[in-house]
Amino acid sequence: MKDKIKQLANDLAGEFVANRRHLHQNPELSYEEFKTQQYVAARLKEIGITPTEIANTGLVATIEGNNPSSKIVALRADMDALPIVEANDVPYKSLNQGVMHACGHDVHTASLLGVSKILYNLRNEFDGTVKLVFQPAEEKAPGGASVMIAEGALLNPAPSKMLGQHVAPNIPVGKIGFREGMYMASADELYFTVKGKGGHGAMPELGIDPVLITSHIIVALQQIISRNRNPRYPSVLTFGKVIANGATNVIPNEVYVEGTFRAMDEVWRADALARIKKMAEGIAESMGGTCEVFIQKGYPFLKNEPELTRRMKGAAVEYMGEENVIDLDIWLAAEDFAYYTHHVDSCFYRLGTRNEEKGIISGVHTPTFDIDESALEIGAGLMSWLAVSELAL
Ligand SMILES: [Zn+2]
Ligand SMILES: [Zn+2]
Question: CB-hemisphere CA count at 13 Å for 18?
Fold first, then answer.
């Protein structure tokens, strides 16, 4: 089976690249993936697979093997692009000015199309069902994954296992990375409006200085991270925007603050958010002002089910060789695949796409992000192999 998959992936590699280039040239923003949805649906129908529309711009489909209800494994690709002006001078440069596949979701989608073709060809040679999940809007709250789940993507049929992959510009092409357990963070957005009473900078006694209140809040909140958090669970609190629009000699009426809180545990996450709100409000009040706290909740933390992940890593070693399968570190970025991981045993792994010799080194979400396209043959072939390995259990 492994050799058949490798052969098919190799034979079809040109098609994977063509699909990726089409998607890369025609990127669409989160929740607007209408043409992408049409393109994916058309390719699936060509293969012989009938997709169903879901979540407005998403698709689900199944490939039934023998005994289709014996086991169901879902495979996920995200399809949205980012509001970035592409700076690469390549033949497949974005034709949609200001929109760019700078997070590799074109690669994930093209890979899953490749998996679809490989496994449809081999459908008489495995037991169970492969469920294909093409989701919109990974990049934008509330996250396409949450909409997909709400609309029943994990039902009829309900998968017992789920896999997702993501490009990794820090990992050389030809290598794959796994991590068991907590892997990526929850991410919540914090918005504070600290109000005081402005006035002349020379007469602070007549006002209530919201700049000083904000300063105390920012310093004090780090205490929640250092003193209330269980040190076994990583967590981050960062404020990246502070606007106090006074002047050298003007105390403003209010200060506006934005930040992000990240965590690797849902109980701690809820506790920390409550503490952040209480402490910010309390400090402002004790200093004579107020602090309005608005928290935009984001994605949960991403957990890779340990036993599934261990099996997938083992299967990847069989496919790629031991030297090409690496262990990943915890990463406090967020990813909406995390929603699935709280519903079904899941494994989210990294596909190496870096090639220093070709100058392909830019990070995701940058205008010069690109991949070594030989990663597509691996991305499609390996995911096919992981799925049938798990179905064979
Ligand atoms: Zn991204
Ligand atoms: Zn991404």
Answer: 6
What spacing in Å lies between the alpha carbon of 333 and ligand 1's midpoint? 9
Amino acid letter for position 360: I
Joined tokens for residue 49: 């697979």
Residues 6 or more apart whose CB falls under 8 angstroms from that of 357 comprise none
Give, rounded to a whole angstrom, the gap between the first and last alpha carbons of the chain. Answer: 14
Annotated binding site for Mn(2+): 103, 105, 139, 166, 365
Q: Is there a single domain that holds both residue 21 and residue 153?
A: yes
**Do residues 167 and 217 share a domain?**
no
Q: Do 35 and 84 have their domain in common?
A: yes
Whether residue 258 is found in the same domain as residue 307: no
Q: How far is CA 64 from the centre of its chain?
A: 28
Domain of residue 119: give its range: 1-183+301-392
Identify the CA nearest to 26 among candidates 92, 119, 118, 125.
92
Q: Reduced to 3 states, what is the DSSP secondary structure of residue 352?
A: strand
Q: What's 37's domain CATH number?
A: 3.40.630.10
Residue with structure tokens 């711009």?
A: 57
325 bridge partner residues: 176
Q: Which residues are designated catalytic?
A: 80, 138
pLDDT (tens digit, 9 = 90+) per residue, 1-16?
A: 999 999 999 999 999 9
pLDDT in tens, 132-156: 999 999 999 999 999 999 999 999 9
Number of domains into which the chain is organized: 2
Q: Are 165 and 335 in contact (CB under 8 A)?
A: no
Residue 263 three-state SS: strand
The reply to whether 161 and 35 lie within a common domain is yes
Q: What are phi and psi of 141, to 5 degrees?
A: -55, 145
- Cα(107) to centroid(ligand 2), Å: 10
Cα-to-centroid distance, 198 and ligand 1 (Å) = 40
